[in-house]
Amino acid sequence: MATVLVKPLPPLSGLHFFRRNPSTTAALRSPATVAAGSSQHFHGFSTYIRCFEFNSLSQMRDPAVLRHRRRVSTVVASAGNLTAPSSWESWKPDKKAVATPLLLSDVIWPAAGAFAAMAILGKMDQMLSPKGISMSVASLGAVSAILFTTPSAPAARKYNMFLAQIGCAAIGVVAFSVFGPGWLARSVALAASIAFMVIARANHPPAASLPLMFIDGAKFHHLNFWYALFPGAAACVILCLLQSIVCYLKDNLKF
């Protein structure tokens, strides 16, 4: 048989094995150690070094002790999901935005795009008025502001915009069909719309107003599920075309 040389494992650095002795236990319980552990902070909450010592095998198997250990470990693990509390910095202007020089063209082109968008939609309203249909809805004002002023924002992504517009509008139709007009339909529709955008990873805040507009707007009731496509999603196609023109002008015609 062939002989295989086995290389010994290198010593593990950083791992130390201690035997339980009175000096170690006294060191862990010393005021200096407790003070050092209590000075550590995790997301705003003080954390303490907790040493679980078992005096006997029966205590190790005690369900109450095990539940206590699981409860402590669960609290520490869930603390990682906490978000940092808001500070006074959120009440101040963005330092990067203030430091960026503002050109006149950065103001003119987005404003011109919004003017053109409402003018086109208003003209379409005149053409569709005999049918009782309106294209100029309030949520499109917020969509225009997002597309023309912050085209790189997550809410301006085409996926987010169209999926949220269609999904939230359909949720409004379903809520109205089930609960009828009233506060309950509005509450359920808004909550379901926010949940839908979170699950679908399609954050587009203006779309949350579409269910409320359908429930409270009698002029939209005859559209039924066509409301999922019109006027919200259909108007967004026009706004996206205008956004491409505005972005081109902002990048190439600066003054």
Topology of helices and strands:
Blueprint: H1 22-28, H2 31-38, E1 41-42, E2 45-46, H3 57-60, H4 63-78, H5 95-99, H6 105-128, H7 139-149, H8 158-179, H9 183-199, H10 209-216, H11 232-252
Antiparallel strand pairs: 1-2
Plain-language structure description:
- Helices cover 56% and strands 2% of the residues.
- Strands 1-2 form a two-stranded antiparallel ribbon.
- The chain has helices at 22-28, 31-38, 57-60, 63-78, 95-99, 105-128, 139-149, 158-179, 183-199, 209-216, 232-252; strands at residues 41-42, 45-46.
- α6 (105-128) runs antiparallel to α11.
- The chain is globular, with a radius of gyration of 31 Å.
Summarize this, please?
About 55% of the residues lie in helices and about 0% in strands.
Low-pLDDT runs of 5+ residues are 12-22, 34-54, 70-82
* Distance, first to last CA: 85 Å
Portion in helices = 55-70%
The DSSP helix count reads 11
Tell me the major beta sheet. Answer: 2 strands, antiparallel
Rg from Cα: 31 Å
Q: How many β-strand stretches?
A: 2
Strand content: under 5%
- Report the oligomer: single chain
Considering the chains and any ligands shown, give keywords for the structure.
two-stranded antiparallel ribbon; 11 helices; 2% strand
